[in-house]
């Protein structure tokens, strides 16, 4: 879609060495992307809140090198100030697949320095924030060198498209407050190729929403998201699941627009449990939830019944529980977490996050 052989630097007028810095957040899906086809295309539309505190900072430095014969990109890579050959290799491999889109990358010596706001071992996925940060750096680089992405909409669309190729959920981190990825008749301009902004649809209540991430375990997942998506291909419930996701998206959009918290909470919790049910009935079956995850979900439901406070849970592909609630009850909920939920968290670890403004260039 974005292949462009004209994006080649003129060696008689080389750019000066410089760098680009982006901070990009993670996101939490309310309607889950689970199942894909082709080159990272989703089987159903998904919708997420953009987070704020859980984020990646990435600096991309570049120096012109007059060598168009090199086989691939030339990349030095540092993660939290240290060399990291495993991440370096993954990044270089991804950048090499992007050469038809950014042929000028071969004409530069590139250095990436990156780090997350949370420990890598926190057990929360960093791919959405890291890959979206990379996509934003690359689009800024293209625009700086060629002036080709001046319109914000063009810039965001290309960044989201690129991020999707690296990790599906990353394409939703580009936008403030909320994003929708996947073609649906419900949202004009929606596409399987990239996400679109959905923040404007939100009722005010959801613009001031919290997501406290309860870290039940920091262990490496037994089954990666990539493998989990692949297992959906033979899952007997796949077809009804994709239809269900579409119907739930319709209902969720109504709740998000009207500020209907109970409707929102029911859909979001049902989505979380459906995601894990799909894992349990994959072949081979697997379970990522842990006793602590179940205890937390149970306590959240009891707390809601007892207090009437609108606190809901969701999950991503792991044992950690995300607590979603409006800013108006933050103090009460933090007390509840402290007293009742922290004992289920590894070393009492909780990441306090909230719906945010999206990525920023620093
Ligand atoms: C459960 O985006 O991590 O978090 O495209 O293979 O990188 P890849 O998968 P990934 O899958 C995320 C799955 C999820 C739901 C979601 O974020 O929508």
Descriptive tags:
single chain, 362 residues, alpha+beta, 8-stranded mixed beta sheet, 9 helices, 14 strands, 36% helix, 23% strand, binds ligand DP6
Describe the 3D structure.
The protein has 362 residues and is an alpha+beta fold. 36% of the residues lie in helices and 23% in strands. It has nine helices and 14 strands. A hairpin with a 5-residue loop joins β11 and β12. Bound molecules: ligand DP6. Ligand DP6 binds next to α5.
How confident is the prediction overall: mean pLDDT?
96
Q: What ligands does this structure carry?
A: ligand DP6
Structural class from helices and strands? alpha+beta
Q: Which stretches of 5+ consecutive residues score pLDDT under 50?
A: none
Terminus-to-terminus distance: 29 Å
- Tell me the Rg in angstroms: 21 Å
Sheet bearing the most strands, described? 8 strands, mixed
Strand content: 15-25%
How many E strands? 14
Shape: globular
Order of helices and strands: EEEEEEHEHHEEHEHHHHEEHEE
Share of helical residues: 25-40%
Q: Helical element count?
A: 9
Please outline what is shown here.
This protein is of the alpha+beta class and 362 residues long.
Topology:
Elements: E1 18-31, E2 36-37, E3 41-42, E4 46-64, E5 74-79, E6 82-83, H1 85-97, E7 108-116, H2 127-146, H3 152-166, E8 178-181, E9 195-197, H4 204-207, E10 209-214, H5 225-231, H6 238-258, H7 261-280, H8 291-307, E11 312-315, E12 321-326, H9 330-341, E13 350-354, E14 360-361
Parallel strand pairs: 5-7
Antiparallel strand pairs: 1-4, 1-14, 2-3, 4-7, 4-8, 5-6, 8-9, 10-12, 10-13, 11-12
Helix pairs in contact: 2-3, 6-7
The structure holds ligand DP6.
């Amino acid at each position: 879609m974005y292949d462009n052989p004209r994006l080649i630097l003129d060696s008689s007028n080389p750019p000066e060495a410089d760098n680009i810095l982006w901070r990009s957040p993670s996101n939490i899906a309310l309607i889950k992307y689970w199942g894909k086809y082709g080159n990272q295309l989703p089987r159903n539309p998904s919708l997420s809140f953009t987070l704020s505190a859980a984020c990646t900072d990435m600096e991309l430095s570049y120096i012109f090198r007059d060598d168009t014969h090199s086989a691939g990109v030339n990349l030095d890579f540092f993660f939290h100030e240290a060399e990291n050959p495993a991440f370096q290799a993954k990044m270089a491999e991804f950048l090499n697949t992007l050469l038809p889109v950014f042929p000028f990358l071969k004409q530069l010596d590139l250095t990436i320095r990156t780090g997350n706001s949370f420990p890598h071992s926190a057990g929360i996925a960093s791919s959405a924030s890291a890959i979206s940060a990379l996509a934003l750096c690359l689009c800024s680089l293209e625009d700086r060198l060629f002036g080709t992405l001046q319109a914000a909409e063009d810039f965001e669309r290309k960044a989201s498209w690129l991020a999707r190729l690296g990790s599906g959920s990353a394409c939703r981190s580009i936008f403030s407050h909320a994003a929708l990825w996947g073609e649906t008749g419900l949202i004009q301009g929606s596409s399987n190729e990239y996400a679109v902004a959905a923040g404007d649809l939100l009722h005010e209540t959801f613009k001031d929403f919290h997501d406290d991430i309860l870290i039940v375990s920091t262990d490496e997942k037994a089954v990666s998201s990539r493998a989990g998506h692949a297992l959906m291909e033979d899952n007997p419930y796949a077809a009804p699941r994709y239809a269900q996701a579409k119907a739930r998206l319709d209902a969720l959009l109504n709740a998000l627009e009207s500020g209907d918290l109970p409707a929102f909470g029911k859909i979001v919790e049902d989505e979380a449990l459906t995601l894990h049910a799909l894992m349990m009935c994959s072949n081979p079956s697997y379970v990522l939830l842990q006793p602590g995850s179940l205890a937390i979900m149970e306590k959240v439901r009891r707390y809601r019944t007892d207090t009437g406070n609108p606190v809901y849970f969701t999950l991503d592909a792991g044992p950690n529980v995300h607590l979603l609630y409006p800013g108006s009850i933050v103090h009460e909920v933090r007390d509840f977490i402290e007293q009742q939920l922290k004992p289920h968290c590894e070393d009492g670890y909780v990441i306090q996050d909230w719906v945010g403004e999206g990525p920023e260039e620093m």
